[in-house]
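Subject: two folds for Thursday's group meeting

Dear M.,

Sorry for the delay on this. The cluster queue was jammed most of the week, so I only got both jobs back this morning. I'm pasting them in the order they finished. Each block is the input sequence followed by the predicted structure tokens. Could you check whether the formatting survives your parser before we put anything on slides? The first protein is the one we discussed after the seminar.
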Amino acid sequence: MLGDVLLDRGIENNLSHAPAEVFEVWRNRESIEIEAAIIFKQLGRDLQTLYGKDDLTALLSLKSSDDELRHARRCQEILSFNDKKDYPAFTPDFKIQFGPQYLTDKQRVLYMSLGVCCITETLSTALLIEMHERAFSGIIRDTIHEILVDEVDHARIGWAELNRQAQNENISWLKEYLPTLVKEAFSSDIAPMLKPNQDLSIWGILSPKDARPIMEETLEKVIYPGLEKYGIL
């Protein structure tokens, strides 16, 4: 039952009266988590193809897929407090294509690792830290905390794969794709926040004006320095 997983029911008493935008953003988050589950499963299987079924990074990626599905369920719990709208069924894209078609399987794994883990998951971690600071206690804050803890590990998968491939070959070719991957990451993280025109931070939602500086600082101080040593910057 929902109540069994809550540490503090604080905000639940008012969640059913939250602005409609709150549920729209969390609905969007649910879809993002489901698609992330598909992505990590694909990455995990590709890693197993390259390195074997017992490869640690591959297994961590497959576990991350399960994590993302759990996150989606937590989003659904938040959405259950909204009795004013029936959401249409979400149909995930099971044929997500990463990078140009001419990439080899090994290159595509590296491309995914950079875009999905090193960039997107690292940026997400930074945003979640701020969201956790601002959110009311209860299901919103507990959900953010749960996602945050997992996102840290998800980001590490990408850095581990970059480091592995860099041991034996030059991976600076990824530099060509960095601007596109950063742009896509900003779009996926900020786009769900564009509609709300009020301060909804207590509901775990940052405005674009608050989110963008956090992401830019994370790029400059965390992501770019990490990529520079691989010649990707």
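Second protein, same layout:
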Amino acid sequence: MNSNWAADNLQAIRTLMERSAIYRRALAPVMTFTGLVGILAALIGAWLNIVKVPAFTKYWMGVSLLAIAGDYVLVRRQALKESEPFWSPPTRRVTQALLPALFVGMIVGVVFIRWVDNPEGTVLLPTIWMLLYGCALHAAGFFMPRGIRLFAWLFLVVGAGIFLGLQVTHYAPRMNFGHVLMGFFFGGVQLAYGIYLYFTEQRKNEA
């Protein structure tokens, strides 16, 4: 049994390494879609003045579910295009790597909905989600090209800096600042990374 388990895992790792280019191609539309959803959601949230902590948290948790569902639809299309099964061993490994941090993010969201009334929660929550998202990307990055781990560190370092800076300075930003953070990092930064992946992959294919 142990030899079979080792052989299966070795084959899965080999498959992941062989398909790193496919992951890179899939990342471009995924990051672009997620970025566009983040920007649009931030604009709508600010326009509707969703600033109370429970409403803010529920709103962005709903947006994240929409983005994740759309991402998996894009991954499925990519799998069909490459004539591969959608729920392949590589897809399962990446999903398993993402799940722990995303699960903690969901629990944090539930806590903010039920027990956090401080208006500053709409600013602290995005920074916590940034840290957890960075952890999720970094974990998944072991099955994907190196660039995604560097991208994950951007969320980790900047998220930690904003989180600590708010605590040290006791700065009280505007009520809509949470939407600004979500829109900029989960929207604009991801959109920029998706565009970067698209053009670098296009140049590689042309070469």
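Two things I noticed about the second structure. The chain is about 85% helix and 0% strand. The radius of gyration is 18 Å.

Cheers,
T.
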